[in-house]
Amino acid sequence: MIVKINPQKPEKKLIQKAAQIIKRGGLVAFPTETVYGLGANALDKKAVRKIFTVKQRPLDNPLIVHIANKKDLVGLVKEIPKEVEVLAKKFWPGPLTIIFLKKEIVPDEVTAGGKTVALRIPKNKIALELIKAAGVPVAAPSANLAGKPSSTTAQDVFEDFGDRVDLILDGGKTKIGIESTVVDVTVNPPVLLRPGGVSFSELKKILKNLKLHPLILGKKTPEEVVKSPGMKYRHYSPKAQLILVKGKSKERISKIQKLINYYQKQKKKVGVMTVLENKDFYPQADLVLSVGSQKDLEKIGQNLFKALREFDRRKIEVILTEGLKEKGMGFAIMNRLEKAASKILGT
Ligand code: TXA
Ligand code: MG
Questions:
Q1: What would the pLDDT profile of 262-271 be if each residue is shown by its tens digit?
Q2: What is the CATH number of domain 2-212?
Q3: Domain layout of the chain by residue ranges
Q4: pTM of the model
Q5: What superfamily does domain 241-345 belong to in CATH?
Q6: Is residue 207 pLDDT above 80, yes or no?
Q7: Mind giving me the DSSP string for 75-100?
Q8: How far apart are CA 248 and CA 282, in angstroms?
Q9: On the CB side of 160, how many CA atoms lie within 13 Å of its CA?
Q10: Which stretch of 57-61, 130-134, 148-152 has the lowest confidence by average pLDDT?
Q11: What pLDDT sits at residue 217?
Q12: Which of 33, 97, 174, 176 should be mutated for ligand 1, with most atoms under 8 A from CB?
């Protein structure tokens, strides 16, 4: 069931209702500032298992635990490194997930049997009120079927899960649209596991020796390379085949124009995901979606998953998408596109 809730002043009654569901071991989907989450009581193994079942998520992929206050950390983690205090002060509430050594109380179901737990405080009133009212930490992966683009609206969540979720809180479109940045501070040097809402350079100011995980770097493939077999799971992928075309603007555009032709000859419905500046270059495509100006990467981040889902709704079979600058939010956007793509062309 989807219920509309006021994002500025979440109705107490609705929050109470959602909190009751969480307390009783049910599932509630709720907005965060990044994407919608599929939440359950993180300390209730059975409830956490439901998340994996409903999402069809592989059991070896751990969940992020959401808390409302920094002081809630103490009960869940073994130690809080000094630089983490600084990170938390600067970026919480916000789109930063930090990996800690977990205490016994955090079930293996949440951490996929690992010794560490991922934690964050979301910057969204509905999420925060819900966690507080539930009185427990809330485990929540992105509220989408495993492998699909994340949900940035309550309708996306309903499309993937229908009534298999006890309640979907509809707080409108999410603000950032891309998931949180994940950083592991249990290792030395600290490692960025997933680029996201907080940029690498912002983090580097505090974690001076921060490194990128090799899998993030490894995706920068030259020329025509089929997706690395080392990438364990498909991610963020629409039903349609996604082809990412990188390279200089002119070359990119002419390559995409040729590819539209090529796939249409094969009787495929071809879509192009592009930027405002280039949207008129592809009149022959079956559907052209602009995700925003290339000068406004934040805006593109907001629209990215929504656009990918829209191509599926419109029965597009091949999506050709333009590579973007990897600066700031562009780094996280390109990471998602590279993971979603079945083919990457150009450098
Ligand atoms: O913005 C977000 O982070 C959203 C909202 C709902 O908070 N959540 C989200 O969750 O994106 P999910 O499950 O889709 O992605 C969590 C990522 C996965 O890549 C997972 O492997 C990683 O965090 N992760 C979770 N626990 C971890 C751990 N203990 N060690 C390393 N990576 C972990
Ligand atoms: Mg996810």
A1: 999 999 999 9
A2: 3.90.870.10
A3: 2-212, 241-345
A4: 0.95
A5: Threonylcarbamoyl-AMP synthase, C-terminal domain (3.40.50.11030)
A6: yes
A7: TTBS---HHHHHHHHHH-SSSEEEEE
A8: 17
A9: 29
A10: 57-61
A11: 79
A12: 97
